[in-house]
Amino acid sequence: MSEKSVIRKAGIVAGAFALSAMLVGSALACTSLMVGKNATVDGSTIVSHTVDGWYDHRMQIVPGQKWEDGAMAPVYKNLCYQTMPTKPLNKVGEIPQVSETYTYFNTGYPSMNEHKLMMAEATWGGREESYCDSGWMTIEMLQVFALQRAKTARDAIVVMGALAEKYGYGDVGEGLWIADGNEVWLFEITGPGPLWNSELGIPGAVWAAARIPDDHVSVIANRSRIGKLDLKDKDNYMASSNVISFAKDMGWWKEGEEFLFNKAYMPAEDYDYAPICSRREWRALSLLAPSLNLSPTAAQYPLSVKPDKKVSAQDIMAINRDHYQGTPYDLSKTKAGGPFESPVFYRANKDQRPDGTKDVYWERNISIFRCSYSHVAQTWADLPDSVGGIMWFGLDQPLTTVYVPVFAGVTKVPSSWSDGYRHKMDRNSAFWAFNFVSNWATLKWNYMIKDIAAERSRFEGQFFAEVPAIKATAVEMHKKDPASAVEFLTNYSYNNMLAVEKAWWELGDTLVGKYCDGYVMTDEGAQESAGYPTWWLEDVEYGKTSNPADPK
């Protein structure tokens, strides 16, 4: 039975209603980058992810193990929302377990395994007609299974594609950077429509994957990025068997036209100029390859480009922290930024927006206040697994966080990083230390961000200075006793996480005292008035109601 005879556009209404609520925030969600091994300063592959919304911020290490014949693995929905009381975990079924699973690091979107396989997610929504509520698999569930079962990016794609096709994909359109030490792939997936079920004998998902050249960089910012597919080139492309036929049956592609995955499976308004997404694509690519002189208002950008110079993990961290500094899109330098040049802009509800702006948003910065966590993950092919993978992990928004190195061989993290509430302040949770500092800084941003940046640089400077020696020591230990190397790396990451957490609670207290009541407290204990910039006082008509020269 063909997809066309089962999934007709006339029968899409249920799917459209189910999906509409899920798509509301998809374009406001994550930004993810990649760097190939020949484009980095140290030969690593890099993927990064800013997880922008209320997602599970906790880092939990799920040990690998061997399983008996007949063992089953549970399948859940809402896996990425486990700190959100209004979205409880929902078990939808079980699938056969494999004989052995690998240890993986479970965050809102699972990110790393013991074999230094790395992932970074970005939602792109897709067409309402593609959504399939009966599909078991979500993107984060596919990530779990891939990290438990695969050692390479290619194998991870095979695992995820097969499971999604067999059990159905019941999530919105998603993209994943997947990196091992040699390759970085982009995997994109969408649903088979609302009428699919497992008894039909047709694929329960539509997906495609493209390998990025080793000397290139790329970005996903809530739009599908895979365009052309050369399915004869199996070294660089993979896809589900229905990737073209489903689009044809649905009327999204016509015979004789060039087939572009993103054009077929995204709504036209997302494929065309969509500044809430495309501006971030432009910004990231322009920072990495300024010589291209890309237009900030283009509808589409190249999937990947060659950077002007070799890229470091610090460069990617800087992009994660970007809010369009030095461009017309930096709203902190406009009236919107207020007297203290804040880059934080809360969402304006539709009924609050002025006429003519009902369907537009603030400029969507890469670093955003509602980020749950972010990471910059590096993998080296020539190092032992436990040593050759580092996830630089930061809680809350990138601009005010510290990226702490967590090695792939780590076996435990502090409970304050693996546990914690999200719906109420919790001083036993590291997340709240960073969230508090970020929120407090909005009171006097251009003052407090200097204190925050200095402390941030102190820690990250220390980590980047130490890590080469830490890696070298661990490699030598691994040659003699792999377990001792794992213990060494675990202690290093564990202690640094505690140190940063402690420092950030102390920084929060310092900022409260230093900037109390609108003043700036000096080291000598004197108060100095920060006041306001003249332009802002003029703009708010300072003194108008109390000017004796104009009693009216």
From TrEMBL:
Example GO biological process: proteolysis
Signal sequence residues: 1-29
Top-rank taxon, per record: Bacteria
Single Gene Ontology MF annotation: cysteine-type exopeptidase activity
EC number(s) reported in the record: 3.4.-.-
Membrane-spanning ranges: none
Top EC category: hydrolase
Keyword annotations from UniProtKB, A to Z: Dipeptidase, Hydrolase, Protease, Signal
Alphabetical list of Pfam families matching this protein: Peptidase_C69
Kinase listed as a keyword: no
Catalyses which reaction(s): an L-aminoacyl-L-amino acid + H2O = 2 an L-alpha-amino acid
Similarity section: Belongs to the peptidase C69 family.
Official protein name in the record: Dipeptidase
Lineage: Bacteria, Thermotogati, Synergistota, Synergistia, Synergistales
